[in-house]
Design brief:
This protein has 337 residues and is of the alpha/beta class. It contains 9 helices and 15 strands.
């Protein structure tokens, strides 16, 4: 591990489905796994066996003083309720995205964690991806010039039951856009399509606008036959590209000229950016363990996660009304059309 711990925090995983099992594996490898829980007893026992820890009830985990924190990887609609119970029991919380499915629930969790002095973070895993972090650094160190636009695409065929593209895929891209721009947008507009009958929207498009002319667009599809996970930052001097669907040596590139030189006759020149491969989930969990142990707040802390929920909630309202939605900077759980 990169962090140093006098006593390694003990963590339990709540929810042992496809992604929860990845948390079980990673925490067991790091030596921090203490217990698991799943509503499906058979699945929970299998995860417990894989992690060499007991399968406990949720109440047993929350009452166990040897467990410092929990990872919540249950269905989206249950995140806020279980996270609240865990915080009230004095546990640090890493809850999978989205942190909540309403801004009001998100506000309550953030306030509860702050009042109890507990770490609250969300699994916005791409904030820990070395490729995205390199793109963020290119923005911050001025390599790309002044930031003018961000374009993000997340297209693939989601496995299992039909997914709500906004709430299932959107947190990844919204979290990256907010990290790159450094602030909330002023307005959010969204449109959705539902090609499959009796299913949530599988295709969603978002447009985020900022007061200074900065903008971002996000395209999400859970029924796309060609996988594309790409985010492009348009700067005045150059474009930065992070395409996670590429091999590690090709994930990040810089393309010149940028917007200020786009009217010239020169041919754009692309160069790949050196990148060291690493596992984002391990880096995310290590950030959680370090925060519990007195280290810095993780990038995907509770307040960051609340901002993501606010944008998603605004997008959902825009989809329902057909109008752009203004984010009220004075009231985190209020949206205006």
């Amino acid at each position: 591990m990169t962090g140093s711990f006098q006593v390694l925090p003990g963590i339990a995983v709540i929810g042992c489905g496809l992604w929860g099992r990845n948390h079980v594996r990673t925490l067991a490898t790091l030596g921090a796994l203490r217990a698991v829980h799943d509503a499906d007893a058979e699945g929970g026992e299998a995860a417990a066996s894989a992690g060499n820890v007991p399968h406990h009830s949720l109440s047993e985990i929350l009452d166990n003083r040897g467990i410092d924190g929990v990872v919540i990887a249950t269905p989206d609609a249950t995140h806020a309720e279980i996270a609240q119970r865990a915080l009230e029991a004095g546990k640090h919380v890493l809850v999978e995205k989205p942190m909540a499915i309403s801004a009001a629930d998100g506000v309550r969790l953030v306030e509860l964690a702050a009042g109890a002095g507990l770490t609250l973070m969300t699994g916005h895993i791409l904030l820990y991806h070395p490729g995205f972090q390199r793109l963020r650094d290119l923005v911050r160190d001025g390599t790309l010039g002044s930031l003018r636009h961000v374009a993000s695409k997340r297209h693939h065929i989601a496995r299992g039951a039909p997914r709500h593209a906004l709430w299932d895929l959107g947190p990844h891209d919204v979290s990256m856009v907010l990290e790159l721009t450094g602030c909330l947008p002023k307005e959010v507009a969204a449109q959705a399509a539902t090609p499959l009958e009796n299913a949530p929207p599988q295709q969603v498009s978002l447009l985020l606008t900022y007061p200074d002319g900065l903008s971002a667009d996000i395209s999400l599809s859970a029924i796309h036959p060609v996988k594309l996970h790409q985010i492009i930052v348009a700067g005045t001097d150059a474009f930065g590209v992070f395409e996670d669907s590429q091999d590690w040596q090709d994930k990040v590139s810089v393309i010149r000229p940028g917007l200020a030189g786009s009217g010239g006759a020169g041919t754009p020149v692309s160069e790949t950016v050196p990148l060291e491969a690493d596992e984002p989930l391990r880096l995310e969990i290590e950030a959680f363990l370090e925060a519990i142990s007195g280290g810095p707040p993780p990038p995907s802390n509770g307040r960051e996660a609340l901002d993501v929920v606010r944008v998603l909630a605004a997008a959902e309202k825009s989809m329902a009304t057909g109008n752009a939605v203004t984010l009220d900077s004075t009231a985190p759980d209020n949206l205006e059309t």
